[in-house]
Amino acid sequence: MIKQYSYSKLARENGETLRTFNTDAVKNFFKKIKSFLYGSIAIILFFLSWEAASNYDLLPSSVVPPPTRVIAALAVSFKSGELVYHMKISLFRAMLGFLLAAFISIPMGFLLGTFFKTFERALLPFLRMLEKLNPFALFPVFMILFGIGNVEKIAIIFWVAQWPLLFNTIAGTRSIETNMIKAARSMGANKKVLFFKVILPAAVPGIFTGVKISAQVSFFMIIASEMAGSSQGLGWYYLSSSQSYQVPLMYGIILFITVLSVIINLLFTRLEKHFLVWKESSFQSN
């Protein structure tokens, strides 16, 4: 009798828990939908106003075609494979330059911010001066050094991507409280444990600030560099469509580049949340 009562009570509790979980899941789902719709209102109104202005001759359709024509031209380019081809080239160049910058700048930032602070104080003004150099003014220099091609584009991306990574990594390591390091050392932590359990987790927010800025700058700069001198890539494709007066396609490429940059930002934001969870678990395990 007692067992039967216990089983029935447990079943009721599990049922209530399941109902609560389902209710919370539904509420969260509708909350996300509501948030998405609120965020989309301005975008929808913008495209509706654009369509109406073009169709009712408030804007010259030869200069500003309606979004329906823009999307149709983009769909034709996508179907032919030309848009995807140029997108792959641009993303490959941007990714390679960004990864090369991350591979060099993040370790250098850790070294300068932790073990070589005196050297960092002496070197920092010079690095800041290099950062302030206008990358657009350096395009001819990179073309002379590397020619017009993939190497030149990757070198430009490396140049602009390294500074946010380097300076934000240094700032992230500076934000670590000395008491945390002293406490870890007093508990017998060696350099390896100190780095992976204290310094690296504490520097993660600063590093990812640099990573997000660097990724956005890399994508922006690859489009600009392809417009300056290239025969492939989204930047060149945009310039080619404008020069051949394919106005709907030109606007379509602008929209496509905008959507790509938003997707890149969202991807790195999700990655940042994942690493922040890892940071919390690292501190808790200590």
UniProtKB/TrEMBL annotation:
Main location: membrane
Record-linked SUPFAM superfamilies: MetI-like
Record's keyword terms, sorted: Cell membrane, Membrane, Transmembrane, Transmembrane helix, Transport
Protein name from the UniProt record: ABC-type nitrate/sulfonate/bicarbonate transport system, permease component
Keyword Cell membrane: yes
UniProt membrane topology term: Multi-pass membrane protein
Listed GO CC annotations: plasma membrane
Pfam families for this protein: BPD_transp_1
Family: Belongs to the binding-protein-dependent transport system permease family.
Native organism taxonomy: Bacteria, Bacillati, Bacillota, Clostridia, Eubacteriales
Subcellular localization, as worded in the UniProt entry: Cell membrane
